[in-house]
Structures are given as structure tokens and as C-alpha cells.
Amino acid sequence: MLRRTLLLLTLLAPSLPAQLLTPSRLAQNADSAGVALDIVVPPIPTLEHSRLPYVFVGVLATGLVVNRLAHVDADGGGYSDGWNTRARFSDKFVHALSGFALTSVGIDMRLAPWSSALLTCGAGAGFEFTQGYVSVRDIAADCAGAAAGAAWRKWRAHR
């Protein structure tokens, strides 16, 4: 009976809602019927998941273009750029934290951890160039945060 039901579900798959055909839903139904499910149903890829990495890259690129054209965050320079600025809170720590966060968002949007870190590092460097004054230390902090984010997420995934 179960095999006939699964065959019927397979034939009707295009006309059924995707949430009814997930492996977990099929396993729940088989378990509730007291039947062991001995087949594996591969997940159905969705279009949204395949577009997410492009959305991430597009958002990073849009931020660079907007800052270049509108100078939303201009930096005229003219100050001593060290690891510790005169602000109460370290500017470099904020750069590292934003690199970590952006890398994590890229990973959530289906990018590989190190690909997300590389894109985030490149966007951080590009953002420095769009500001007017390029701080090598800011770029280093962006990239260090991105690398830490990728390493953290990769470690958490394998734990």
C-alpha cells in the first residue's frame, strides 16, 4: 500500500504543493501509519536558494556604487591613522565586527564560508577606496573580521 502511495505521489508531484513532498513529511506520514520508509527522497531545490548568492553580491556592489556616487560615508583623511584612533571605541574593532557579520550573512545566503569572506574582504577594500581616504589598517581589520567569521562558521558547522 505504501509503495503504491509513494508511486502515486511521484506521478502527481508537479501538481502537489512542495511542502507535502519533503522527506520529513513523507517520513512522518509513514511513521504514523506504522510503516518503515526505506527510500530516500532528495530535496527539491528552490529557485530562491540559487539566487541568494547573487543577491548578496548585488547588495555589496550596490553599497559600493552608492557610496562612490553619493559619498554617504566620506573620509577626507588628514589624521594619524593608527590601530587606536582618538575615539572612545576602536574604529578597527567596528571594521572587524562588520566583516565578521557580513561574512556570516553571506554564508546564510548559501555562499561557501571562504567565498563569503573573500567577497566581504574585497567589498571592505572597495569601500575604503570609495570613501576618498584609503586606510590599509581598516582594510586589514575588515579582512581579519571576515576570516574570523568564515573560520567560526566553518568550525560551528563541523562541530
Characterise the protein shown here.
This protein is mainly alpha-helical. It folds into two domains: 2-32, no CATH class; 47-157, no CATH class. It contains six helices and no strands. Helix 4 (91-108) packs across helix 6. The longest helix is centred in the middle third of the chain and has 24 residues, at 47-70. Mean pLDDT is 80; it is low at 1-12.
How would you briefly describe this protein structure?
With 159 residues, the chain is an all-alpha fold. The protein contains six helices and no strands.
Task: Draw up the topology in text.
Blueprint: H1 2-12, H2 23-32, H3 47-70, H4 91-108, H5 113-131, H6 136-157
Helix pairs in contact: 3-5, 4-5, 4-6, 5-6
Primary descriptors:
disordered N terminus; 0% strand; elongated; 2 domains; 159 residues
Give me the count of strands. Answer: 0
| Beginning-to-end CA distance, first to last residue | 40 Å
User: How do the helices and strands follow one another from N- to C-terminus?
Assistant: HHHHHH
Low-confidence stretches: 1-12
Rounded average pLDDT: 80
- Specify the biggest β-sheet: none
Percent of residues in β-strands: under 5%
Which radius of gyration do the C-alpha atoms yield?
A: 24 Å
Structural class: mainly alpha
